[in-house]
Design brief:
about 350 residues; alpha/beta; TIM Barrel; 8-stranded parallel barrel; about 40% helix; binds flavin mononucleotide
Length: about 350
């Protein structure tokens, strides 16, 4: 009933409006609803997971379900009261940057409905690490809900250049650690649409960044958010650097830059380019998860992300070796019942181990 309601009624209405406005509206509404016990109970009644135990412990962190809201939806950390009630076991807040970042000039998002993808040209719009840290520090969350924080280089002229960029990331991490905020941290090295390019996905630049971040003392797991467009040799070289610096895991991965993977390339806007979410990410991210698990065994925690539009898509990623999955586009294109569907499918195949 709820899936039908979303597909036939809510989605057609929402998809008539500008995606960024819908997104902002949902975040504001979600934040408001989350403040009220009755609002949380209503959401939980509609979209909460109530099947067999789907909880999992990864790097010492307990997730009520193995599904995390990927970075880029709750970039300012405003949905912590809502997400545990709609089937998520965790959220990756951010990406946050040391300096508040207004983002790229609009339009910053476009839905490609037939290709089940979103063109993302946000440019890391967020309120900055100080504001987000303060907000997260004031929020209580359930013990089995994990709050990760993704950090990125400020998309501003002040952070252009390798040294400035490294210090910019370090300032965010130091601020979060000082406040004791964040159960894990993800270093976003692969944002495709920012000032100063994607240079930290280049092993030569990544090594000094991770070396500097490793000097910030804390006891939380750190993951790297990987690009999915490099070929396998290049991908391996990035993973080698991540391994050498002792990070615990990888999020595989970020948006797809390859427009040839769109089912309907004609849908893409001609006036601007951005990374592609959703269906175009699915196969490549699953393949990289499988190859990474095969090549590195249990060395890394793997969070698989990209193109999970059904419970079957998520199960392909778990079977490929993912410990956890992350998603955004599936919640939008398929509906908010997707998380419970995935949790149920996971519990049936992997639960109770
Ligand atoms: C609107 C939007 C904004 C995003 N912003 C970020 C971000 O700030 N940091 C990041 O690491 N990934 C960001 N992403 C990428 C997602 O985390 C994810 O890697 C990608 O969307 C693929 O997952 P999906 O197919 O489930 O959407 C963003 C994605 C979307 C749709």
């Amino acid at each position: 009933m709820l899936p039908l309601l979303y597909q036939k009624v809510l989605k057609p209405v929402l998809f008539r409006f500008d995606p960024e406005r819908v997104h902002d509206g949902f975040v504001s509404m979600g934040e408001g609803v989350g403040r009220w016990r009755a609002g949380r109970a209503l959401l939980s009644g509609m979209y909460g997971y109530r099947g067999p135990d789907a909880s999992v412990t990864v790097d010492g962190l307990r997730y009520r379900t193995p599904i995390v809201l990927a970075a880029g939806f709750d970039y300012n950390g405003r949905l912590l009261q809502v997400l545990p009630n709609i089937g998520f076991g965790g959220v990756e807040v951010g990406s946050v940057t040391a300096l508040p970042t207004p983002g790229n000039d609009p339009p910053r998002m476009r839905r490609l409905v037939r290709s089940r993808s979103i063109v993302v040209n946000k440019g890391l719009k967020n309120e900055g690490v100080d504001v987000v840290t303060e907000r997260l520090a004031s929020e209580a969350t359930p013990d089995d809900f994990v709050v990760g924080v993704s950090i990125a280089r400020s998309n501003r002229a002040e952070a252009v250049g390798e040294e400035a960029g490294i210090e910019d990331y370090a300032r965010s991490l130091e601020q979060l650690v000082r406040a004791g905020v964040g159960d894990y941290y993800t270093v976003n090295i692969s944002c495709p649409n920012v000032h100063g390019g994607e240079s930290f996905a280049d092993p030569a630049h990544l090594a000094p960044l991770l070396e500097r971040l490793s000097r910030v003392e804390h006891d939380r797991p750190v993951y790297a958010k990987m690009p999915i467009n490099p070929d396998w040799d290049e991908f391996r070289r990035i993973v080698d650097v991540v391994e050498a610096h002792g990070l615990q895991g990888l999020v595989i991965g970020n948006l797809n830059k390859d427009y040839a993977t769109l089912d309907h390339p004609g849908e893409a806007p001609g006036e601007y380019r951005g990374g592609l979410s959703g269906a175009p990410c699915r196969e490549r991210s699953t393949e990289l998860v499988a190859r990474t698990r095969e090549a590195w065994g249990d060395r890394f925690t793997l969070m698989a992300c990209g193109g999970i539009l059904s419970a079957d898509d998520a199960m392909d990623k778990f079977r490929a070796g993912a410990d956890l999955v992350q998603l955004i586009s599936g919640m939008i294109f398929t509906g908010p019942h997707l998380m419970s569907d995935i949790a149920g499918a996971w519990a049936r195949e992997f639960g109770g181990r």
